[in-house]
Amino acid sequence: MRIVIQRVSEATVTIDGKIKGKIGVGLLVLLGIESEDTQSDIDWLVGKITRLRIFSDSDDKMNHSLSDIDGEVLLISQFTLHASIKKGNRPSYIRSAPPDIAIPLYETFIRTLEKNLSNSLATGTFGADMKVALINDGPVTICIDSKRRE
Questions:
Q1: Of 8, 26, 42, 69, which alpha carbon lies 20 to 30 A from 136's?
Q2: 8 Å CB contact between 62 and 110
Q3: Dihedral sign, CA of 30, 32, 38, 44?
């Protein structure tokens, strides 16, 4: 699994002209799923999402986690995080899990993350054409790969 975490002051996801999810201060998390991903990948990433210390303390140092600030999360599935551009200029998405594998993992990721959050979780809709708007705070953007543990 790969995630891109963006620290935001607000974010929304709109589908067919209607806001599906909206958060205030917290994290926008883009999630890419591979066929080989397991509950272990989910648990490790959820731990990182909830405990990563990227919010400012009173001294303006990144020392607080999402849990510390009671922040919100907007989770968006994004298969393009596993794009390969090794050959040519058209990305290949062969490493991305097909829907029959990805959807159950995405739903499990949502349930696991909800159990570990002190605040609300908003989501997009798997496979939908989504418009994501955000105000990146900092800006702070971090990419994490569960297979590399980095």
A1: 42
A2: no
A3: negative
Contact between residue 137 and residue 7 where contact means Cβ atoms under 8 Å apart: yes
Token couple for 63? 């020392």
Answer yes or no: pTM beyond 0.85.
Answer: yes
Q: How far apart are CA 106 and CA 30, in angstroms?
A: 11
Q: Is the dihedral of CA 56, 13, 33, 90 positive or negative?
A: negative
- Cβ proximity of 43 and 64 under 8 Å: no
pLDDT in tens, 79-132: 999 998 988 899 989 889 999 999 999 999 999 999 999 888 999 999 999 999
Largest CA distance in the chain: 48
- Residue 125 burial (CB count, 10 A): 14
As annotated, the active-site residues are: 78-80
61-71 average pLDDT score: 95
Domain range list for the chain = 2-145
Residue 94 corresponds to which tokens in the numbers above?
A: 């062969």
CATH 3.20.20.140 fits 2-145, yes or no: no
Structure tokens at 10: 């607000």
